[in-house]
């Protein structure tokens, strides 16, 4: 076997485990998504998986990163473009910041993996109650999340800190809730969740948020 063929086989084996873990994690969450179940879903043995990763934590660090990194890279590229377009002392537009945050996650592919899968894994991870999952996630999301907060804080100077906290809950809730609980809500409302156009949603949700977050300005005398 040539070095190139061996490398390709290794990558294929790793991808098989990672792909199997995606569906299990989306369905069951971190604690119930065991290494043994991942091995079985991948159609191979625990011993083979253990050749690639030393622990469940190490496995999930790679699994989360392959979903999070392409989304964060695309978000930060859009944040870069916003900041580069600003005149000195100017504030970024609220909708532009929101679209830069939502669009890479909801609209089209930003990496090799199907985008809906990446966003489902991303949102399921953010909602996962496991302390170990939280410890893995925190360093992965910190820089992009802090940058989003900084840009929104600049775009919403009229909000005090408590109101700005509530604004952030609206933004992040709109980012996570439709993916984690949207299917159940659609069923209750009699809507076909599979028919939702997420590319269009990436434009609509920022418009809704912009309208709500700027409403206090219009209400002031």
Describe the structure.
The chain has 221 residues and is mainly alpha-helical. The protein folds into two domains: 7-53, Arc Repressor Mutant, subunit A (Orthogonal Bundle); 68-219, Tetracycline Repressor, domain 2, CATH 1.10.357. Helix content is 77%, strand content 0%. The protein is built from eleven helices and no strands. The protein has helices at 3-28, 35-41, 46-52, 56-85, 94-106, 115-127, 131-155, 161-180, 182-189, 198-213, 215-219. The chain starts with a helix and ends with a helix.
Number of domains: 2
Record field, number of beta strands: 0
Could you say what the CATH architecture of the largest domain is? Orthogonal Bundle
- Give the termini distance in whole angstroms: 77 Å
The coarse overall form would be globular
Q: How would you describe this structure in keywords?
A:
Arc Repressor Mutant, subunit A, single chain, disordered N terminus, Tetracycline Repressor, domain 2, 77% helix, 221 residues
Describe the protein's topology.
Blueprint (H helix, E strand, L loop, with lengths): L2 H26 L6 H7 L4 H7 L3 H30 L8 H13 L8 H13 L3 H25 L5 H20 L1 H8 L8 H16 L1 H5 L2
